[in-house]
Amino acid sequence: MCRIYRPWQTLKRQHEGIGIGGTGLVGRYIVEELLAAGYTVIIGGRHAPLPRFFSRPVEFAPLSLDPAHDHIEAFDDAYFFVHAALHHLPGKYRGGEGNDPEAFKRFNLDGSVRLFEAAKRAGTRRCIFISSRAAYGEHAPGTVLKEGMPDKPETLYGQVKLDAERSLAHLAAPGFATASLRLTGVYGDLRPNKWDRLIEDYLNGRALPSRVGTEVHGKDVGKAVRVMLEAETGRISGETFNVSDLTLDTWDILEHIRWERDCLNRLPLPADKSQLTPMDTTKIRALGWVPGGMPLFEQTIHALATDNGGV
């Protein structure tokens, strides 16, 4: 459930770091982006990743979200800490607490705060937390979600993310820069893939609902993390940043599959995108973050449609 990074010779400085969540569906993209950028990555958690799980060799170190454990020794000489882990029921984020909300809160809030505090005590210089748009909660259709607006999460998942953000920001101090990234839905081309079931259902002629949401590619999430690690401290510390890119519905996704796979099954009707609450990303774009937009989406959906190892 965790990852450790030791980037080398970045911006003419030697950095060492630690992180958590590297083998998850989102964390994998972050790890791969850092590997591609020349970072040496150590995956930590309860179990080591399988051989060749990542594109390049990685190391492993034990780490957990259990607040009963003090992992301060894991932060020895760590320059930064990236937290992308979540204790939850398989396949669920909202509602991921199942029938045990207390355990969900204990691991994801108490355990996270304990790791933040351990990192600070150990002398770690930067801490980046992967949060969620769920921290905003429900707003009127068409509302543009901007950092600093009132938060009113209606799920335990959203509340825990918000409380962890606030706890981390409270710890920000000279020598310990903190930042939280509020992610929208994350898509990409790694397997298993969030759209595998959707594509399979379409190709098999099953009825599909019209659904719409905001999305960002996992590669762009990795780039956002790099921005947080490499930006000037004063521009990120104690701050929260939205990370989002496209508005997509099931028609947008499956229309490409239809042509790529020469499938004549009926597509779901286009959804009403005006009912969404899009996320404003001006703040992180000002730091140089530029997402892949439609070209990256089209490249990704082509890869998913033509992957013989997929659906």
UniProtKB/TrEMBL annotation:
Q: Which residues form the NAD-dependent epimerase/dehydratase domain?
A: 20-243
User: Which superkingdom?
Assistant: Bacteria
Q: Which Gene3D superfamilies match?
A: NAD(P)-binding Rossmann-like Domain (3.40.50.720)
Q: Which PANTHER family does the entry link to?
A: BIFUNCTIONAL POLYMYXIN RESISTANCE PROTEIN ARNA (PTHR43245), BLL5923 PROTEIN (PTHR43245:SF58)
Protein name as catalogued: NAD(P)-dependent oxidoreductase
Instruction: Tell me the organism.
Output: Rhizobium grahamii
